[in-house]
Amino acid sequence: MDSKYESILLSKPFTFIVGPHKKQYIIHEATVSRLSKTLDSLLNGGMRESDEHCVCWEDTDEKTFIRFGEWAYTGDYKPEEPEILLDSSQIAYPDDDLPKLIVKAEQTVKSLALFNDESGDNGNQGHCTGRVNATHDYGAATKRSCGRCRTRFTTNCCTACVAVRYSACQSCRKIPEQEKRLAMIEKFNNNSAYESPTTPFTPRKNTESCEDYSGVFLSHAQLYVLADKYDIKELRDLSAHKLWVTLKEFSLYPERMGDIIGLVKYSFANTIAGDKLRTLLTDFCACTVEDLCQGEGFQDLICETPEFACELIKEMSTRLE
Q1: Which among 1-5, 121-125, 275-279 has the top mean pLDDT?
Q2: CB-based burial of residue 236 (10 Å sphere; 0-12 exposed, 13-18 middle, 19+ buried)?
């Protein structure tokens, strides 16, 4: 028999009063006290809680506490399931009044895990002295084939040497900027700081814009905040790992920008500067900022959460180096 589990089952029951509704949960004392010195002091430190075998956690919601208890007993927890949102335009009501789902065509959206490396120069072709010379103007436009993708595009010619201004089309000229973004994504995807302390987690992937992941993200973040508060390192690392791999596989549909915005707001409101969760979300937003900037609510997030804005600017500045 495993002595650890025997000691848990032989320990006294401890009551946790959880959430604004003060719901009572019973957990074996040894299950919780062994998790960290902070919790051991809370339960066995001679304070009122240890004397009464009762702790009040009103600032912890019930679902988060259940996940905490699940992890305390089993070493793992299940995140929230995504909510499927269907608007009225997706449901038709025929004559028999039976709802029938209308499937909308979805735009293709890649998760960070699906990005592939690309490379190339910016296609700027020097002229006269072998470089762009400000003393000479570019004049008439001409059609030519892109040196990379072979598509036809319009560019100007130098009035002095007739050299074309660009050898590559506008799309291909953006590749260096894309390379820096891809390097940032690769760094995020391979960041060992978020590796699992136990078994690697395989998240559910979203494939449609109607899949609301707000609850999924917050289930990890809220458990992280609880673990951080009571210095439960293993749970803190596990919840950060699960959130990290979920974000890597998350397809950021325009309709789902709010899922990320809500996650960032909660995380920055409940952590301190330099926190691991803040770094994780700042890095993710830096990788996806082109998409986030087009989404509703992102500008409000920047204005309302200046600490996040500052960290994002610092991270984005690496693309300018």
Answers
A1: 275-279
A2: buried
